[in-house]
Amino acid sequence: MKSFMSRAVLTGLLLGTSMLAAAATPAPKGAEVSFVSLKNGDTVPQEFTVKFAVKNIALAPAGDVTKNTGHHHLLIDVDELPAKDTPIPNDANHMHFGKAQTEATIKLAPGKHTLQLELGDSGHMPFDPPIVSKKITVNVK
């Protein structure tokens, strides 16, 4: 019985994952995300404001399923984009802006840091294909 339950749980997890992968929100044609106030190589203080912009897509809070909308996620010192079939994490390296914010004040330790934006759909899932900015490096003094 225990083996049957384990297989049933595993099957349910695999089915749920495959359904999520199949349900990826298509990216609107020409959709872009970018930084407004920062450029690659900029030197910034430990606390600074980051401004975000979008093109060919509208912003909406997380949970809003209006077509062709999404919200920002700021990826800090992330080497690889989040997996396309799971929600974008919410941790120190993946900041969520689920209220459709277009700017934030962040604080980073001195040194070099990479920043990249990724738009998520109503459920924090990456679009297909992902809508990401160019990765930039900032020097925090």
Q: What would the keywords be for this entry?
A:
single chain; 141 residues; alpha+beta; Immunoglobulin-like; 6-stranded mixed sheet; 3-stranded antiparallel sheet; 1 helix; globular
Describe this structure in a few short sentences:
The chain is of the alpha+beta class and 141 residues long.
Structure explained in plain terms:
- The chain has 141 residues and is of the alpha+beta class.
- Helices cover 15% and strands 35% of the residues.
- It has a single domain, classed as Sandwich (Immunoglobulin-like), CATH 2.60.40.
- The protein is built from one helix and nine strands; from the N terminus they run H-E-E-E-E-E-E-E-E-E.
- Strands 2, 4, 5, 6, 8 and 9 form a six-stranded mixed beta sheet that branches.
- The chain is globular.
In CATH, what is the class?
Answer: Mainly Beta
From the alpha carbons, calculate the radius of gyration and give it in angstroms: 17 Å
- Helix count? 1
Q: What is the typical, i.e. mean, pLDDT? A: 89
Query: What is the domain total for the residues?
Result: 1
Number of strands: 9
Contiguous runs where pLDDT drops below 50 for at least 5 residues: 4-11, 13-22
Return the string of H and E elements. Answer: HEEEEEEEEE
Largest sheet: 6 strands, mixed
Provide the CATH architecture: Sandwich
First and last CA, distance: 60 Å
CATH-derived topology: Immunoglobulin-like
Structural class: alpha+beta
Strand content: 25-35%
3D shape = globular
Helical residues, percent: 10-25%
